[in-house]
């Protein structure tokens, strides 16, 4: 029995082989030991959290990773915005990266600026807003329940 050359079968087979062969050069294996995110890829415009209002830029790092025990965020509070006054039942850390702000902690207004870190203890209430007409940038970390 003589084998006949079948052009459509040859082309489909060749294309499949080429795709499988090329994938080894195109797909870079991801190391399972870490997750790297660039803030430019995750930035979102958002209202101030906890009914703070105004315009902010949020950077919700690792939000798609479901097994994280730590929530890590960066937020830029633009003039006129705030993180609304709210109660915390867990510890939360704010670290001011740049700008000046007004921290409302348990009803007392405290000025904050770049380099200040705040550890909110369970049962405390707080809110944060920029002071003046400049952005206030804060890193936020708390335990994910």
CATH classification, class level: Mainly Beta
Radius of gyration: 25 Å
Unreliable spans? 14-29
Number of domains: 1
Q: What percent of the residues sit in helical stretches (DSSP H or I)? A: 10-25%
Terminal CA distance: 70 Å
CATH superfamily annotation = Jelly Rolls
> β content, as a range?
over 45%
Helix count? 2
- Could you say which overall geometry the principal axes of the C-alpha atoms support? globular
CATH topology name: Jelly Rolls
Strand line-up in the sheet with most strands? 1-2-3-10-5-8
Order of H and E elements: HHEEEEEEEEEE
What is the strand tally? Answer: 10
The description of the largest β-sheet is:
6 strands, antiparallel
The average pLDDT value, as a whole number, equals 85
CATH architecture: Sandwich
């Amino acid at each position: 029995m003589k084998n006949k050359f079948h052009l459509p079968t040859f082309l489909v087979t060749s294309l499949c082989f080429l795709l499988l062969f090329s994938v080894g050069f195109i797909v870079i294996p991801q190391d399972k030991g870490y997750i790297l995110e660039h803030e430019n890829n995750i930035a979102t415009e958002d209202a101030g959290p906890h009914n703070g209002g105004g315009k902010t830029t949020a950077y919700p790092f690792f939000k798609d990773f479901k097994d994280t025990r730590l929530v890590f965020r960066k937020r830029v509070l633009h003039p006129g915005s705030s993180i609304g006054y709210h109660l915390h039942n867990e510890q939360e850390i704010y670290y001011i990266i740049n700008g000046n702000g007004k921290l409302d902690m348990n009803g007392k207004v405290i000025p904050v600026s770049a380099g200040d870190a705040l550890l909110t203890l369970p049962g405390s209430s707080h809110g944060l807003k920029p002071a003046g007409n400049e952005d206030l940038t804060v890193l936020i970390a708390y335990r994910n329940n």
